[in-house]
Amino acid sequence: MKDVLVVSAARTPIGKRNGYLREWLPAMLLGHVLDAAVGRASIDPSLVEDVINGTVYQVGEQGFTLGRMGVFASNLPDSVPGTSINRQCGSSLTAIQMAYGMIASNTLDVVIASGIEMMSKYPIASDIGGTLPNGQPQGEPYGEFFFKRLKGSEFYNQGQAAQAIAKKWNISRHECEEFTVASHAKAYRATVNGYFKKEIVPTSGLDKDRNKIVMEKDEPIRPDTSLEKLATLSPVLGTEWITAGTSSSVTDGASAVVLMSEEKVKELKLTPLARIKANAVVGSDPILMLTGPIYATPKILKKAGLTMNDIDIFEVNEAFAPIPLAWAKELNAPMEKLNVNGGALALGHPVGNSGCRLSITAIHELIRRKAKYALVTLCTGGAMAPATIFERI
Ligand SMILES: CC(C)(COP(=O)(O)OP(=O)(O)OC[C@H]1O[C@@H](n2cnc3c(N)ncnc32)[C@H](O)[C@@H]1OP(=O)(O)O)[C@@H](O)C(=O)NCCC(=O)NCCS
């Protein structure tokens, strides 16, 4: 097996729903981060052997195979292929893992892994139901085979699954709201202190009056988030007390990393950002659906020969506040190492983009802190969780 290194990374600032990114064509936005990642790697674009892209709602402008469309929208030559994969909210971490596999197995040497989602255009479940061009219903993937797995339990939506997880791990609304306040405060502090500057690629867009702007920071953060205000919000998604405050918001964004074998990095005399130390992926209980990170974490630690104590920072996706809180309770994790620059509660969660975005943020934070290991994991629809450990070089 070859060692696989992250050579460069780029992500857009995350855009609010119908925010500054609203008029971008997804392929163009993907092309924009592909160009930025290749530019930051300082490599000949024709060296890229594949683009593996994670997108969840692969319909309409995000359809066909967006990885390849992103290549056409970039400065990469026609000879660079591209594909799009889908593991729900874990899609672009899975893209990184697939690229890792291609390189580690000596199949390819230079691969870009990326993620993009424009939820303003294609919200949750955009690829389910609907109508075919001939007017026939498009259909749904669920069937008796799936409902049998729920063993008579209700089929929760993701908010309801988060609510059930809060109950099971005895997590209160107040704890979730404290966690949300902290997430916004950490993300705001990171923004003000310029911690995201190196990972962000300034991206053009429109302000609310349609003036052209260049965005350099994440749009969804609400620095004035308070316990008092959060306590007044009404429940959403048919839950008891999960609110818009304790849910990740509907957002847009794209990100990309250039991955290379260590031999190629040496040959090209590049300075890499990080090494991929280990990968894992699990399937979990389809009723609670969002508990995967609890099981992916010990699995990947074992594979890496590491313990919780060896990890300097954990990025556990904040799809809803109970998810990282249940993870932390179950694994007795140190809260001061968890989502140190905030998470999706503050920054938003453009689903296909998030695995790559979290990885990019974790790698840059490792470098800033001169720390060694970051563990990144995300819960997903369909009850799964990929996890990756990055090592600073
Ligand atoms: C939860 C959800 C339904 C809420 O939708 P929404 O009501 O349109 O949410 P918004 O983000 O627009 O927030 C609504 C209001 O809540 C309040 N609010 C939200 N977050 C807040 C915060 N941090 N502080 C204070 N007020 C807040 C505001 O009043 C806001 O209205 P405003 O934007 O006009 O100020 C939607 O965000 C959602 O579906 N999220 C989950 C997405 C998902 O499932 N992803 C996959 C996860 S696995």
Would you kindly provide a written description of the structure presented here, covering whatever features stand out?
By secondary structure, the chain is an alpha+beta fold. The chain has a domain at 4-122 and 249-267: Peroxisomal Thiolase, Chain A, domain 1. It has helices at residues 26-41, 66-72, 91-104, 144-149, 158-168, 173-192, 227-230, 262-267, 292-304, 322-331, 344-347, 354-369; strands spanning 4-11, 15-16, 50-54, 82-85, 110-118, 203-206, 212-215, 251-261, 274-283, 313-316, 373-377, 384-392. The strands form two sheets. Strands 1, 2, 3, 4, 5, 8, 9, 10, 11 and 12 form a ten-stranded mixed sheet that branches. β3, α2 (66-72) and β4 form a beta-alpha-beta unit. α1 crosses α2 (66-72), α3 packs across α12 (354-369) and α5 (158-168) runs parallel beside α10. The longest helix has 20 residues, at 173-192. The radius of gyration is 20 Å and the shape is globular. The chain starts with a strand and ends with a strand. The model has no long low-confidence stretch (mean pLDDT 98). The structure holds coenzyme A (COA). Coenzyme A binds at residues 89, 124, 158, 184, 222, 225, 229-230, 233, 236-237, 244-245, 247-250, 319, 349, 351. Coenzyme A is lined by residues 89, 124, 158, 184, 222, 225, 229-230, 233, 236-237, 244-245, 247-250, 319, 349, 351.
